[in-house]
Amino acid sequence: MRRKKQKSYFHAALAATVAVSAAIVAPTGFAEAASFPDVKSTDYFYEAVTSLTERGIIKGFPDGTFKPYQSVTRGQAAKILAGVLGLDTNNVKNPGFTDVSTSNEYYGAIAALANAGIINGYPDGTFKPNAPIQRNHMAKILALAFGLKASPTATTPFTDLNHQEYEGYIKALYENKITTGMTPTTFGGTSNVTRGQFATFVFRAEKGTKPTTDTTEVTFTISDINGNHIIAGSQQYKVAGGIQGLLDASNKPALQGAVVKAEVQNGEIVSIRSLELNKSGKSGELITLDGKNTNIAGNVTINADYVAVKNLNVEGKLLLSNKVASVFSASHVTVKDELYVADKQDTQNAPTLTIHLTDVSASKLTLERKRSVITSDKAISELVLTDAVYSVEINGIVELLRVHDNKEISGEGIILKAAVSKAADLSLNFTGKIGELRIEQKEANVKLGSDMEIKKLAIPAGASLEKIIRNFAEIRYSIKIGELMDLQGQPVSFPAYEIFPVVRRNGVEQPFTVVSNKDVQVAEYKNIFAYPGDRVQLTPREGTKIHYQVESYPRPNISCPPEGCEKHVPDPLTYPVYTGPIEIKTDSTLIAAVVKDGAIIGEFTVNIFVGWDDAISWEQFPILKVNGKEKIINVSTQKENGYEVGDYGDVSALSKAEVEFIPREGTAIYYWLGQSEYYDNDYDYASARKYTGPIEVRKATHLSGIVMRGHKVIGEFSVNLWIFDR
Q1: Residue 606: strand pairing partners
Q2: Backbone angles phi, psi at 235, to 5 degrees
Q3: What is the CA radius of gyration of the chain?
Q4: Alpha-carbon span 251 to 27, nearest angstrom
Q5: How far apart are CA 721 and CA 650, in angstroms?
Q6: 669: CB partners within 8 A, 6+ apart
Q7: What 3-state class would DSSP assign to 176?
Q8: Is 171 left (phi over 0), alpha (psi -120 to 50) or beta?
Q9: SS3 helix, strand, coil % of the chain, rounded to 5?
Q10: In the chain, where are the structural domains located?
Q11: Residues 6+ away with beta carbon under 8 Å from 403
Q12: Which of 48, 101, 171, 306 has the highest CB neighbour count under 10 A?
């Protein structure tokens, strides 16, 4: 019997009170058909998927793929079929399936098909919308949906039609050329239907086009290649044109014993779902597979040693099994998923695995191997070193390096960002540059290479750089760290490196602060307040020399020539070498460089301010305490009228400051708050307050005072008080 007109189904459906549209029209408001990256123009289902997509019947998955080889579920099949038939999926009667609620995304389609008598679910009252649909069930619903019936004399070549319930429907599909079976003699009724297959069956049934063939997924082991035919034991498969470049006699050595999962149409291989290479080469003579830009729809597994792969597109993962022991090479290979290197089980005697990558891209490289060397001429997007890794040498560029446990990492190149997530005992002896190194645990124990340059180093708040970087004392002369910060991006002060000399004025040591560590370490010493004739002594650290120059303070402005000042900045190596104490006569700035083995490893400055008289004594000034902490006079000069002036400098406090003066014996303190000028001969005693006890200050101010012995002023002093909110 010939296929019935489609409108006969619609009449029957109307009689069954199923509201349908008068013609098959595309739903309104759907997005323009997407281009699925996993649906190629050479695929047998391409025309069907394209047609259904353009009409808004199918839209694929959120990641932009269609997944044509994934089994189609009963719910998905119902939605596609209801869309093709143009059924009203809103005004429906609940069929009562216990596992299909009205909120289910497929409810409308399932109800519409059930109302039309096309589906009836399982005897237990369920529909199982998430279960894969079998070929037997597919045959029944397609025959019912499109009014297909087999003629009384219809036959099929299928020998596996064991279910009388479905035999008539299968014959109807075969007679109307909707299916040709999984093989010339089998229908495969209990096999699941893939999304690509279902789209094709619906498209054929709707349009009445003659099928090219049914496809089936076959796994086989290659035993020989004869022209454009693959020999797999007693089976022989013809190779379609799109993949002949890969399954070619030129690749016969590499494909010997290879396991292939493929889509086969009437004995012809039309696409490759996965490939496993099992033939090893030997040292100095790698066995090479040239894919000639063939696309593999799934994973490629390298299960042999001394293998090279080139010119291949892998939609899934590129997997190196534990049988890849010594060398693997890849060139001009694109891996959509990850490149994964499995661990070698015999870890005690396992050799170092060498991986050469040329123009290879993958979403990430995950390394399980205990010892390996990776060389890549193209940036590795993400390199993950799992707990199994002991040592790895990286030569090339890594955009993101993730380290989880104890590792030894060496090599040369650039790491844009490295994250140490555990309290790892890590040796990072990497020659080159690291954009950002994040050490996320205070307990981490990291050893860095001496020739590294780190743009940003982030450590936990409150962590000690010297404790986290266990060899810091050894590398502090050579390593370059641009910025030091905590994990929240807040600046962290560099530690006081021991390259700088001890600076003393008349035997009193002066503290210093490291202000930069970008190119060379730079320090600023605390200002020295001296008298004419005082001497500044420098004590260089072991193995270093000090080149210095004394300039007037403030340093004069330099008028630069048109070509710029750079050519006129003196080279610190041309400064005199320090050999003994430096006598100070006027306000000066000491500019110096720390030199080790002929190279500058540090720079520092000292500002020196000279007083008027070497007989000045500070002993008349009171002891100042702010919130219990003692402050010391920073500068002392002598005024023309004979008494001295002291400056306690800036004092900071939170919320409030309790200011306490301890006068010297026989003296009294008078003070002003907020006044910054003194009156040399005519003090406004009426406005001055005599100090009798602690002064509470709650806002920033300037405190001025005088020291009196009897009725005589013997000194002036001042202090700036800065109060900050919490």
Answers
A1: 590
A2: -95, 150
A3: 42
A4: 49
A5: 6
A6: 622, 661, 663, 690, 691, 705, 706, 707, 708
A7: coil
A8: alpha
A9: 15, 40, 45
A10: 6-212, 214-275, 276-486, 502-610, 623-724
A11: 385, 409, 418, 419, 420, 421, 422, 424, 426
A12: 48
CA-based nearest residue to 528, from 586, 607, 582: 607
Backbone angles phi, psi at 402, to 5 degrees: -110, 125
Rounded CA separation 385/389 (Å): 6
Which amino acid, one-letter code, is at 121? Answer: G
* Contact assessment for residue 38 and residue 13, using Cβ atoms and an 8 Å cutoff: no
Helix (H) or strand (E) holding 405, with range, is none
The CA distance from 436 to 492, in Å, is 15
340, 318 contact by CB (below 8 A): yes
Rounded Cα distance, 676 and 136, in Å: 100
Exposure class string for 161-187: b at 16+ Cβ within 10 A, else e:
beeeebbbbbbbbbbbebbbbbbeeeb
Backbone phi, psi, residue 250, to 5°: -65, -20
Listed in sequence order, the DSSP H helices in 209-258 are 252-255
Cα–Cα dist 353/366, whole Å: 14
Strand order in the sheet with 695-697: 629-631, 623-626, 657-662, 695-697
Look at 31-35, 462-466, 570-574 and tell me which has the smallest mean pLDDT: 31-35
Give the list of residues 6+ apart from residue 145 with CB closer than 8 angstroms, or none: 9, 81, 85, 113, 116, 118, 205
Q: How far is CA 407 from CA 191, 200, 339, 343, 388, in A?
A: 48, 52, 20, 15, 9
Fold of 623-724: Immunoglobulin-like (2.60.40)
User: How far is residue 397 CA from its own chain's centroid?
Assistant: 14
Q: Are 324 and 305 in contact (CB under 8 A)?
A: yes
Q: How far apart are CA 526 and CA 503, in angstroms?
A: 10
User: What would the two tokens of residue 533 be?
Assistant: 């004739």
pLDDT of res. 12: 32
pLDDT above 70 covers what percent of the chain?
Answer: 83
Q: Do domains 502-610 and 623-724 have the same CATH topology?
A: yes
Helix axes 46-54, 74-85, angle to 10 degrees: 60
Confidence of residue 443 (pLDDT cuts 50, 70, 90): confident
**3-state SS, residue 131:** coil
pLDDT digits (tens, 9 = 90+) for 6-58: 333 323 332 332 222 222 233 333 233 347 888 988 888 898 999 899 888 88
Q: What angle do helix axes 195-207 and 74-85 make, rounded to 10 degrees?
A: 20
Helix orientation angle between 195-207 and 135-145, rounded to the nearest 10 degrees? 20
- Sign of the Cα torsion 20, 23, 24, 27 reads negative
Q: Rounded mean pLDDT of the chain?
A: 82
Q: Which of 243, 233, 277, 240 is nearest to 259 (CA)?
A: 277
In the chain, what's the furthest Cα-to-Cα distance? 137
pLDDT at 329 exceeding the cut of 60: yes
Q: Was domain 214-275 assigned CATH 2.40.50?
A: yes
**CATH, range 502-610:** 2.60.40
| Integer angstrom CA distances of residue 178 from 80, 174, 214 | 17, 6, 9
